[in-house]
Specification:
Elements (H helix, E strand, L loop, with lengths): L1 H11 L6 H18 L5 H16 L6 H10 L7 H31 L7 E4 L4 H12 L5 E5 L7 H10 L3 E5 L4 H5 L4 E4 L3 E2 L5 E4 L2 H11 L3 E4 L7 H4 L31 E4 L6 E4 L2 E3 L4 H8 L15
Parallel strand pairs: 1-2, 1-4, 2-3, 4-7, 7-9
Antiparallel strand pairs: 5-6, 6-8, 9-10
The protein binds ribulose-1,5-diphosphate.
């Protein structure tokens, strides 16, 4: 279980972070785990894979990409251990390949909504959102980016380093400066940890404030989300768990303030009415169409295959 435990630890401590990367890392860890699994029966194989899936799912609660990746990889029917192993490997390879291609396609689709001369604002560090921006830049469009710091973990610093590497004119702002710049923003593009059945977006804490500012200033607000960021669980009525992180991340010593505590949620929910469009690899969709994406692309919750995936 070493490689798998190592990946789980890296996801938990955020060495591996961002919903897409987490999903690909989980798929790859399950593949590695299946390859080294030494068991005699499919029943034992199922039980071990189930346990491995649980270890990964217990790392971070919010991003449904992790759950979807795990479900896609361990969805197999096999007569023998070798067949089951081959199926897990093929599923993982396919998931990773599709995931990388999806981000590229989202870049291609989303970049068409960016014009030369535009200023684009982004929040946190999303590969899908950055690919939309970089595709527009690579298409020769003259664009500027405003990136938020994204407290408390400051993932915005990763974003500005990536944009700098690409040679894109970028301005870093503190999160509370969003409204001050919004009148000069032509498009806001952010990533997604979850898109719910009603088209609401769960993303890095502060996203909903950015969306409200954009709405009030009449700047379009779009999300870039691979279809495996959509949540079949929400179609079955489940609420999205919002990760609450350690107060230590907020970096203030309050030990002498006995009436004060720190609340540090990792994500927030942007209602669908503040979202103009969601760029997916199957097209730019209005948030209200999320139900269709879940039903058509991720329908297993409605039609579960007998096997280990049902227990998760
Ligand atoms: C990252 C975050 C990103 C989404 C999408 O949060 O909120 O916007 O995960 O990222 P954290 P991507 O840093 O807590 O993981 O488009 O790369 O999947």
């Amino acid at each position: 279980m070493n490689g798998l435990q190592d990946t789980a630890r890296k996801i938990k401590n955020m060495d591996i972070r961002g919903a897409g990367r987490i999903a690909r890392a989980a798929a790859s860890a399950l593949k590695g785990f299946a390859l080294q699994l030494d068991v005699g029966t499919t029943k034992e194989f199922d039980a071990e894979m189930n346990m491995a899936a649980r270890v990964l799912l217990d790392t971070r609660p919010t991003a449904v990409s992790l759950y979807n990746a795990v479900m896609m990889v361990i969805r197999y029917k096999a007569e023998s251990v070798d067949e089951a192993r081959a199926s897990v490997v093929a599923n993982a390879d396919q998931f990773i390949d599709n995931s990388n291609k999806a981000v590229e396609k989202i870049g291609e689709i989303g970049s068409k909504r960016i014009q030369s001369g535009d200023t684009v604002l982004t929040h946190c560090n999303s590969m899908a959102a950055i690919t939309v921006i970089s595709s527009a830049h690579k298409a020769g469009k003259d664009i500027r980016v405003i990136a938020t710091e994204s407290r408390p973990r400051c993932q915005g610093l990763l974003t500005i380093a990536m944009l700098n590497e690409l040679g894109i004119d970028t301005t870093l702002i503190v999160d509370s400066a969003v409204r001050s710049v919004m009148n000069n923003v032509d498009l806001v593009v952010v990533g997604a940890d979850v898109v719910t059945a009603n088209g609401s977006l769960v993303n890095k804490i502060g996203t909903s404030q950015v969306a409200l500012c954009a709405y009030e200033a009449r700047s379009p607000f779009v999300a870039a989300a691979e279809t495996y960021k959509f949540s079949p669980k929400t179609l079955m009525g489940e609420m999205v768990p919002i990760e609450e992180r350690s107060p230590d991340e907020v970096a203030t010593d309050i030990s002498n303030l006995k009436h004060v505590k720190i609340f540090n949620p990792g994500f927030d929910v942007t209602p669908h009415r503040y979202i103009d469009m969601i760029f997916t690899e199957v097209g730019a969709i209005p948030p209200e169409m999320s139900y269709m994406i879940i039903k058509e692309k991720l329908g297993w919750e409605m039609d579960p295959t007998p096997g280990i995936s049902q227990q998760l």
